[in-house]
Write the structure tokens for this entry.
Amino acid sequence: MLPLTHLGDLPIEEFLRDYWQQKPVCIRNAFANMEPLIAADELAGLSLEPEVESRLVENEGDILDWRLHHGPMQEHDFAKQRDYPWTLLVQGVDHFVPAAFDLVAKFRFIPAWRFDDVMISYATKGAGVGAHYDRYDVFLIQGEGQRRWQTGQVCNSESKLAAHKDLCLLQDFVTEQTFDLHPGDLLYIPPLVAHQGVALSDNCMTYSVGFRAPSHSEVMGGFADFIGQQLSPDLRLCNSLQPQPAGEISANDLANLRAVINQQLNDENLAQWFGCMTTEPKNSSLDYSEEAMDKAELATIMQDAYGVIRVAEGVRLAYTWQGDGGMTLFAQGEAIACPPEATDLAMALANQLVIEVTDLACLITTEASQALLLVLHNQGWIYFDDE
Ligand code: SIN
Ligand code: CO
């Protein structure tokens, strides 16, 4: 599952240099012969599940009258006859549909820790969720049907919102570009760029591959919380030993304070927090439990030399190197120390997501690498697939 080298004719280096985080770009036929990732009735079926996040937007009447319903949906939500347009939006489809997880792998020219999820929308003709902006980078891929997208001004937290009680819709939208997307076309939209899409046909399916970035406020707050939880309350800040007026907070007091903070502000702490935070599961209600496998069963699979080992759908992996040649592998918000003998396996899993069993043999020649494989397998984060 190799990442794309081009988006249509556009080399990825040029996309990253000229568009990523800067301006929208539409790529015609980025996915030639696009096969639908999921049928509309299966998408509706997913939205009935309690662990799946979904929304339904009904465009009846004026924009301010549009209705937003949060999932899980009920059968009657889809049996209902509507004479107005509507959209079903389902988050985290990559957790449930292997083809959606594989689609994400094509976007791994962006670091995996930036990835958020794949959202799929189903819309009837004329439907749309209104003009808005997201704080995410998003690749909008037309799966089925047609949709007209318009991109507009760059917004910020001061941008005026319409007085809708549930939907975050822009009060003003200044159209800059219009694109009619057909199956296989892609529109990249950077964070804060206003956009709106309207389905030009029934059965309009859009796949949104979203990338998030923590805000500076989340970085500062998250790191401080993480470190705070590890420090003993016995460690206390000392006051300056220099005589000073009782009312003053002196430069020496501030220097002591800075020393306490600097002591924690090292790459190891940063990496531990960042790896755990960015690999935390997007959907924590999913149960990945897998039947435990022992060394003997692993040996049998290796002897059969058939199939692949896959990172389970929705599982987030990332790693950082340590000074001693080992690494920390982060999986689903947990840190796993990998000695040097296990790093090739950890890298292959985190970078490739799928490994042929025949290629796995040379990655698990040591006790440490076999142990790592079994830990990940027995958590349900990787699985053997013989199809
Ligand atoms: C949609 O697919 O209808 C909306 C996606 C978006 O604008 O973020
Ligand atoms: Co959007």
Remarks:
- The first strand starts at residue 6 and ends at 7.
- Residues 216-230 form the longest helix (15 residues).
- The mean pLDDT is 95.
- Residues 132, 134, 195 surround cobalt (II) ion (ligand 2) (CB under 6 Å).
